[in-house]
Amino acid sequence: MTIREADALARGRLSDRRYYHTQCVAKAARELAPRFGADPDSAELAGYLHDIFKEESDDVLLKTMGASDIISDKDLAKKHALWHAFAAAEYAAAKLGMPAEICDAIRYHTSGRDGMTPLDKTLFLADYISEDRKYDDCVKVRKTAEENVDKALIEGLRYTIAELLERNAVIDTRTLDAYNSCVREI
Ligand SMILES: [Fe+2]
Ligand SMILES: [Fe+2]
User: What is the pTM of this model?
Assistant: First the structure.
């Protein structure tokens, strides 16, 4: 699949607002990729595909995640925010034939994971600091990313965890693993 085709697929599946976010993430991913040592074309492709299931019904998400390991998670219902990422990754692998590294970056773009790859890191951070995001935390992380993308990634993971704590929400262990492994790497 070409970048142009991924763009068209996203455009066809998403509302104007979500498509604009997707364009911003794809652009940020291309820019961040070389700084993490990831391939810019793969990063832009992952950017266009990362949220293609964001506006799907729960039925479609559950059906699409059918083969995914998150389905057996006892906290599945409480991790609703992760469903669209796992569904998009399954779809990208099974229906679009995308390479595993792109599917993994899509799968973990919301949760992160232990030992994130350069492409995982690129997409996670691109999604956090994309131009359309105006929250204070995003602005701070965007500023940090101008100087140091590894620090920005840790900051993004930290704010993600803090926000979940604030809401008394379940924290996926993948996010804690991502934070720990990124801190260890630095
Ligand atoms: Fe997402
Ligand atoms: Fe996103």
Answer: 0.97
